[in-house]
Amino acid sequence: MKLYTNGVLIVGMSEIENMNKERVNPFHNCNIQEGDTIVKVNDTEIDSIGGLKDVVNQSNGENVLLTLVREDGSIVTSNITPVQTENDEYKLGLWVKDAATGVGTITYYEKNTGNFAALGHGIVDSDTDKLINIESGEIVTSNVMSITKGNINSPGEIRGTIVNQKTIGHVEKNTPFGIYGKLENLASLNIDTSKSMPVALRDEIQLGDAKILCSLDGKTNQEYDIKIEKIYKNDNYDNKSMLIRVVDENLINATGGIIRGLSGSPIIQKGKFVGAVTNVLVSNPEIGYAIFGDMMIKEMRK
Q: Given this model, what pLDDT does residue 26 score?
């Protein structure tokens, strides 16, 4: 996935060395926080890091007004004076980013709408640990490069690349319950639409045997045995609806259990889609959590 923020996201702050080689922090006493998104400087809308740099350099050191969007959606403003460096550039002392990429698993595709859902959890910024507020995004095919097995207190991961891959759809929203959008290039995914299945209501889900469907090579899907050990039927507020355990020796030998990149892997029980893998217990990679399928469907319908 390639996600683009609405504006540029502030992920850190640092002092700047000015023309006199003094360390200064222009953001001191400004109403600016890590996790804020800069959407406007004065009257100029900001949609990229390059755009922000241009406007700041054009200020010639004059005070500028930043319009910021907080994580809760509130809008605040802050005055800040750019600092001139010895390279004759003007800087704010803010570390920012305008995009994020990552590899994960598409959970399902809905034939009659073209909608897809993935991950079962949201994508958070690695610096701020907050959900990324996106403006747009692409979903592309990926090549699996390697697998790092999970161990106690050391989560594993699937490493992949999206270089020279094909765009297969676009992302519309990044939510705590997954990534959602439209698929447009099904040929690149080899989807067999004849293998559709119904969604299980949470009251239909049972403790015991189930399977997860995932791809460890980025090309073929395989079913692996798991156990559903706990069901939290009244959970309507997070993506930890079920406690699951991987019992399939083939998957354990390959990955150690649940690893990064398997988030979104669909869980199937008695021919119905019941949910998707979301989290791993760091203390035991064979155990993790899953979200109810009906919660992902509800989020998709919003």
A: 87
